[in-house]
Amino acid sequence: MARLTLFVAGRSPNSQRALTNLADVGVGPDHPALEVVDVLASPARAMDEGVLLTPSLVIERDDERLVLVGGLDDRSVLKESLASLDLVS
Amino acid sequence: MSEQSRQLSDRMVELAELARSLGEIRTRIRELAGEDLDAIIDPDGQSWLLPKAQGELYRSEADQRAAAELNRAILDSLPAEVAMLDGNGVITSVNGRWREFGRSHGMSDPQYGIGQNYLEICRQGGVSVGQDTEPVASAIEEALNGIDSGFSMEYPCHSPEREQWFRMLVSPLPGPDGGAVVMHIDISDRMLAERAARSSERRFQGIFATIGVGVVVSDAAGRLQEVNPGFTRMMVGSTESLSGMVVDDLVHPDDLQAHKQLMSQVLGGDVEDPVRELRMVRRDNRVIRVRIRMNRLAVEQGNGHLLIMIIEDVTRERELEEQLRRAHRLEAVGQLTGGIAHDFNNLLTVVIGSAEILVEQEGPDQRLGELILSAAERGAELTRRLLAFARRQTLQPVVLDVDQLITDLVPLLRNSVGESVELVFEQDCGRHMIEVDPAQLESSLLNLCLNARDAMPGGGRLVIRTKVTMMDEPEEADVEPLQAGQYVEIQVMDQGEGIAPEHLGRVFEPFFSTKEVGRGTGLGLSMVYGFARQSGGTARIESEPGEGTCVRLLLPVH
To answer: Nearest Cα to A27, choosing from A2, A61, A52?
Structure first.
């Protein structure tokens, strides 16, 4: 089962854009595989995951781990990455 | 220079070097990541917001604060007590009116319920909604759980000082966090207005239903919209039988033009005195005389204003006026007749005396004397009748049994009316006696029977009926109304052609006759009337064309 963790910094613009882009490709805030972590509220989670930048989307399945940094504006990359995990069609 | 400032000054070079390094780091990060990052997290877990993200976040927070203040201002300005609940039913915020209501009702909680669970408050009876609060709590719970799209209810919340009603509205909030808005809106003004309106309506309906006159509401075309029981009684109909009718259908054809004209004037608003007297035709086809007051209502329906008509049956009033007029005329004619007849009688006494002297003498004047005597005696008889009408004849009253008197008189009456008329005597006077002049009573009955015979030239049935009548109050207007008490009533009824209504009011006047010239003196009924009045009673006549005539003699029981 794949797991997505989006690290955001509050409601800052790039973090909001990353959320919007994710929703646009079919992974909305209520998606069961997605967890949104606000590093301003939970900095320890960022340290545990080794995340240094926000927004960062950490994609994990089994032992594989992929991190996409930024506002996720490149929809083709995003969609391809998620499709490979069968999260979107 | 303070110690702190001096230390800061000493470290300025190092601080400046660090700031320059920070700038270089920021520039390098922008070179690496462009504008696509918001924050950098250092190994200590500290987040460093990049300048653009800081600005955006600051603006976003400022916008949120402004929106929150606006929302609070809106909530405070609402004419209702408002509380916001979270998804579990906990009160997260309340508006100004909620706090004001809490203060005025002695709420001890300084937070006015914020932080408490509203469902639990309801279940513990902490919300006065005028009924069992458990269903209310359940309904709020359903709204919070998305089972129901919200609900509302109205409830009383009276205090010793004033009556109050509220409407409770619960609306679920959209979004993942859920929650609901609870509003209590003061609807006391509306409830009091509705109660006043209901009370006014009940009073109006009470008046409408019980008022003794007819009330009709019609549209501009005269179609009946509403009629009160007074009008249905007046028309001898029912609400159903009058339904769908037009007022015109009920107005006498001869008065229809006047009615239409009044309606037109009232609708046009150009009539000063919207009252008319006209005739209407009841559902049993009887004609009544009514007084109509018409007004335009400030309510429009269809193509025009509604009309209200207050209709008063004045038939009896007009009949009484007519009776009183007749009575006054009879009284005046009686006084005039009596005075003249009395003087004539004195003159005729001299003439008769002189004529008798001439008759007793032998010679050529004897024949002349007989002629004078004959004419003078006829004149005397005429004056006697006139005096009878004028109630100035000399009566010799005795106490008698009227049934016995009529029984004795019937053979004579049968001979007088002839075989073609069947004379029936129905006596029901018991042992009641009257005190009258028997000769005048017999003369009156003979007179009435001869009139009845003349009214039935082809024969018919003539009924003389006696009974005792209690007169509580005058049946009709008169100059000298009958005293209340018991009366013997003698009815003489025929099956003749009747008397036309326009003649009926004059039949007791002297020299008024409906018979052809030469067949009646016009004094018969006048004498009967005068005799009855002089005996403390009266005479009345009722007649329907084609149905016959009934003369009623009313004589006081002795």
So the answer is: A2
